[in-house]
Each structure stands twice: as C-alpha cells, then as structure tokens.
Amino acid sequence: MIIDTHAQLGIPGVGGRPEWQTGHQQTFGGRGLVGTVEANIADMDAAGVDKSVVVAIDAETISHYKVSNEEVAEAIKRYPDRLIGFASVDPHKGVLALDELDHAVNDLGLRGLKIIPHLIELYPNDESIYPLYEKAQELGIPVLFHSGTQFHSGTRIKYGQPIFFDDVAVDFPKLKIILAHFGFPWFAEAMAIVQRNENVYFNIAGWAPKYIPEMVVNRMNSVLSGKALLGSDWPLLPRKRVLSELKQLPLKEESLNKIVTENPKRLLSIT
C-alpha cells in the first residue's frame, strides 16, 4: 500500500490575494493551479498510489481564502477508499473554530487538521491557537502544518520557521504533528525538531525528490526513517514523478517502505 500524506483537493478555492497568481506563476510556471477530484484519482492510479490525504484550507480572516471542509467531505464520500480528508479551521474565529473542527471530525468524518501559519499570520506557538491543539489532541487527529518558505506573494515566511513548532510539540506531547515540506530553508532545524520530539514527523510534499537536500535524504535513510512521509502536494507535482525520483535516491529498501507505507499507516491509523 502506498499512501500520499499531502495533496490538495484539486479545486482553486475561494478568494485569496490577487498577487498570489503572479507569485505562483513565477515560482512554478503555472503548474498545480487547479485540477478536478477525478484528475486527482487518475494521478493516483497512474502512480500506483492507493490512498491520499486531501486538505481543506481556512484562512478567511486574514487572507480571504478558503477550501471548505464540506467540499473535502464531499470528495471523500465519492472516493471513500481512496481519499482521506483533513479539515482546516481559522484560529481567528475563536470558539467557532473549535465547533467547526468538532463538526468536521465527528460529523463529516475528516481525520486531521491543516494549518498554514503564514496565511493566518500567527506563529504556530501563538497561544491563541492552543485551544485548537487541545481539541485536536482530544479528537486524536494529527495536525499538518505548512513549514518553511512558500509562493504566496505578500506573505511572510517567518511564520513557518520550524523552531516555533518545537513549543507545540513539547506542550502537546500526545499530539501528532507533521511538518510539511521539511521546513526548507531551515531543514537542519526541522530535522532536529523531528528527531528530538517523538510526536513530530515530516513530509516531502511539494518537492521533486531529486532536489531534496542531501542532509534530509541522509536522515530519511537513517535516524529519521521512521518519521519521514511521502507527500506530493498534487496538483503541484504528479505523483508518478515523485515516486520515480524517490526510488532513484540512495535509500535502503527498508527506508523507502517506511516512507511510502509503514509510517503513513501508523500515523493515520490505517490497517
């Protein structure tokens, strides 16, 4: 079984800042702006991927951007054996965000929480988010954070520096945390945080594996082989390319199997 721990639903979302389109175009040449749920499944089939996480995005208050939990839940209903939904709620909404997360998990069947610090302009260790971590810990769901740099023009990468996730990991030791994109350019810092905190993982979403820094590859093949996760960030990258290039890295067969199968199954409680 091959499991992708990080993909987009495949729709453009609602709102967002006008300059994001330009920033994305400059960085990625227009790749990954939009796709359909059917195209998502087709990409999985082409790569031999059995299951994939797809994420909602709620950054309405600051960035006026949202891919709703209901849209993700509808996709899950259509492909319940293939897609795993992660909710998103905007911490600025206070108690409404807590209620929405409870609804997303208990009523809509979503199985994780996605937070993008630079879109909500809060450091991950901001105590205004702590009630959400408490709720996620209570619900037994992992939290997937964007970490490191990004292409959203007009936003600040400082909110995604990995050091700020360490406080969350220490303060919520039972909360499973995923650092998406391994915190680049602070990848050494990210690796240290993953290694020192039992409850922290990282994924390679958004990266063509041939460009992953050597230090990260070394950790994936050794001390952090049990913490590394497959991620595509589809439609940004086709999963077939990600898996092909991943297999070309100097990874032991045991390490590769952990990354694409064993670690995601354990994290997501897949039997």
Please summarize what this structure is.
This protein is α/β, with parallel strands linked by helices and 271 residues long. It is built from 12 helices and 11 strands.
Please give the alpha-carbon distance between the first and last residues.
10 Å
Per CATH, the class reads: Alpha Beta
- The H-and-E topology, N to C, reads as EEHHEEHEHEHEHHEHEHEHEHH
Q: In which order are the strands of the major sheet placed?
A: 7-8-9-10-11
Please indicate the percent range of residues in DSSP E strands (runs of 2 or more).
5-15%
Could you give me the name of the CATH homologous superfamily? Metal-dependent hydrolases
Q: In terms of structural class, how would the helical and strand content be classed? A: alpha/beta
Number of domains: 1
- Percent helix, as a range, is 40-55%
Extract low-pLDDT stretches: none
Output the number of helix runs: 12
**Overall average residue pLDDT:** 93
Radius of gyration, CA atoms, in whole angstroms: 17 Å
The CATH architecture can be given as Alpha-Beta Barrel
Oligomer: single chain
Instruction: Assign the CATH topology.
Output: TIM Barrel
Present the secondary structure layout:
Blueprint: E1 3-8, E2 14-15, H1 19-28, H2 37-47, E3 51-55, E4 57-59, H3 60-63, E5 65-67, H4 69-78, E6 83-86, H5 95-106, E7 113-115, H6 117-120, H7 130-139, E8 143-146, H8 163-171, E9 177-180, H9 187-196, E10 200-203, H10 214-220, E11 228-229, H11 239-248, H12 253-268
Parallel strand pairs: 1-3, 3-6, 7-8, 8-9, 9-10, 10-11
Antiparallel strand pairs: 2-5, 4-5
Helix pairs in contact: 2-11, 5-7
